Amino acid sequence: MLQKIIDIVRQAAGLMVTEGFVVNQKEGFTNIVTSSDLAVQHFLCEKLSELIPGSGFFCEEEDLGHDGNGDGGEGTIVPEYVWIIDPIDGTANYSRGIDHCCISVALSRHGEVVAGVVYSPMRDELYCAEKDHGALCNGIPIKVSGRSFENGILCSALCLYRKEHAQACSDIIMETYMQCNDVRRFGAAALEICFLACGRIELYFEYRLLPWDFAAAKLILTEAGGVMSGIDGCEPSLRKAGIIVAANSPANHRRLLEVVQKHI
Questions:
Q1: Taking the CB of the first residue and of the last residue of the chain, which one, N or C, has fewer CB atoms within 10 A?
Q2: Dihedrals phi, psi of 35, to nearest 5 degrees
Q3: Distance set, CA 175 to CA 5, 90, 146, 154, 262 (Å)
Q4: How many angstroms separate the CA atoms of 85 and 18, rounded?
Q5: Confidence (pTM)
Q6: How do the pLDDT tens digits run along the chain, 264 residues long?
Q7: What DSSP string describes 123-165?
Q8: Whose CA is closest to 235, among 218, 247, 250, 251?
């Protein structure tokens, strides 16, 4: 099953054209969608529904008419299998020719993610995981780093779509920065979490992520030995937006979570 998902994702990446796409605003100039986002999502929904007939879809972009969108709202019958899809994570990067963007596809069964693929075609890096079978990057097993908090790099942002929370994010980043090595921002949540999974960074915080931003990457991270939670320290919801805290070890996760809880 995982290899079939990978094959479909690689095919979908061919629709991420480098020029000639159309950019539209969704909720003001900070939140955009391109014609490539819609083309990739349509392709994925069509091919993945053939892979598991009757499966549901929970996607970032417009409703494409598939039954069971997986949101679990009142009165919704959620299928056994639900695909959680971000057709292009890092759309702003993609629209400007910056290579930090990716396709993210997670497959959940009864509300638990069992397979995940994150593919960055411009970087030619494909991260994947199957529950209880470890995580890979381009076919090679990956694991989180063993670096301490003090030697760790934090990846974070200022809550682009809810700028009223920027001060709290800034305070968290600053307090963490004074205790760790450095801070980075790449502009694609799924890819950043995969960087954590393969040992490039050690700490991660975002004020507001939606399930399609992290579902696939979370499985890859945990299969690589990392930790992720919501602000309450419990599993993040696959049905709504929330605060995400992640790290390469339980000790570093607890320490970062304490900083986040202090400011939010």
A1: N
A2: -60, -25
A3: 40, 26, 22, 11, 10
A4: 21
A5: 0.91
A6: 999 999 999 999 999 876 767 877 655 545 667 888 899 999 999 999 999 999 999 997 754 434 444 444 444 577 999 999 999 999 989 988 999 999 999 999 999 999 999 999 999 999 999 999 999 999 999 999 999 999 999 999 997 777 888 999 999 999 999 999 999 999 999 999 999 999 999 999 999 999 999 999 999 999 999 999 999 999 999 999 999 999 999 999 999 999 999 999
A7: TTEEEEEETTS-EEETTEE-------STT-EEE----TT-GGG
A8: 218
> Exposed, middle or buried, 260 (CB in 10 Å: 0-12/13-18/19+)?
buried
List 135's β-bridge partners, or say none.
Answer: 129
Residues with Cβ < 8 Å from 104, sequence gap 6 or more?
85, 86, 89, 116, 117, 118, 190, 212, 213, 215, 216, 217
Do 244 and 230 touch, CB atoms closer than 8 A?
A: yes
* pLDDT at residue 70 in the model: 42
Q: Supply 63's token pair.
A: 């409703």
Joined tokens for residue 108: 């959940």
Tokens matching residue 198: 């393969």
Cβ neighbourhood burial of 122 (10 Å; 0-12, 13-18, 19+): middle
- Give SS3 for 249: coil
Residue with tokens 């054209």: 17
Q: Encoding tokens for residue 24?
A: 């539209």
